[in-house]
Amino acid sequence: MKNYRITVNGTAYDVAVEEIEAGSAPSAPVAAPKAAAPKAAPAPAPAASSGAGSISVTAPMPGKILAVKASVGQAVKKGDVVLILEAMKMENEVVAPEDGTIASIDVTVGTAVESGDTLATLN
Fold first, then answer.
1. How large is the average pLDDT for residues 48-59?
2. pTM surpassing 0.70?
3. How far apart are CA 42 and CA 67, in angstroms?
4. Which CATH number fits domain 55-122: 1.10.150.20, 3.40.50.620, 3.40.50.970, 2.40.50.100?
5. What are the structural domain ranges in the chain?
6. For a Cys staple, 84 with which of 27, 67, 120, 121, CB 3.0–4.6 Å?
7. What gap in Å lies between CA 67 and CA 120, rounded to an integer?
8. pLDDT by residue (tens digit) across 110-121?
9. DSSP annotation of 89
10. 31 alpha carbon, distance to own chain's centre
């Protein structure tokens, strides 16, 4: 068991953390000061992935889709720009990881994405 002091909004909390083995039941919780947990923002609905292609083009970082530069059925070479992703007020080119044909575009302009989300697929 490891003890930590965590400060949240100026209030310090002492917590104990116990590592458990996979498949074992956790022990009874350790009493700690109770505080109202902040409500988490609702997660955006994930983009529906058609999964048409075998090669995924994924988001390298969280951001918002600014432009779609390729269309379904278009042949692309490794390094060709497929989408433009805005992250931290910078425009980032999302490129084809290898040669192929665009099988699906799984996002639209304005879609917010997280790192690792599938943006498009190639065959």
1. 74
2. no
3. 25
4. 2.40.50.100
5. 55-122
6. 67
7. 13
8. 999 999 999 999
9. T
10. 34
In 37-117, DSSP assigns E strands to: 55-58, 63-68, 75-76, 81-87, 90-95, 100-105, 112-113
pLDDT band at 43 (very low <50, low <70, confident <90, very high): very low
SS3 73: coil
For residues 64 and 22, give the distance between their C-alpha atoms in angstroms, rounded to a whole number: 37
Mean pLDDT for the chain overall: 81
Q: What is the pLDDT of residues 10-39, one digit of tens each?
A: 888 888 887 777 665 555 555 555 555 554
Query: Are residues 78 and 99 in contact, defined by beta-carbon separation less than 8 angstroms?
Result: yes
Cα-to-chain-centroid distance, residue 93 = 17
Q: CB–CB of 49/118 below 8 Å?
A: yes
DSSP single-letter state for residue 41: P
Q: Assess whether pLDDT exceeds 50 at residue 41.
A: no
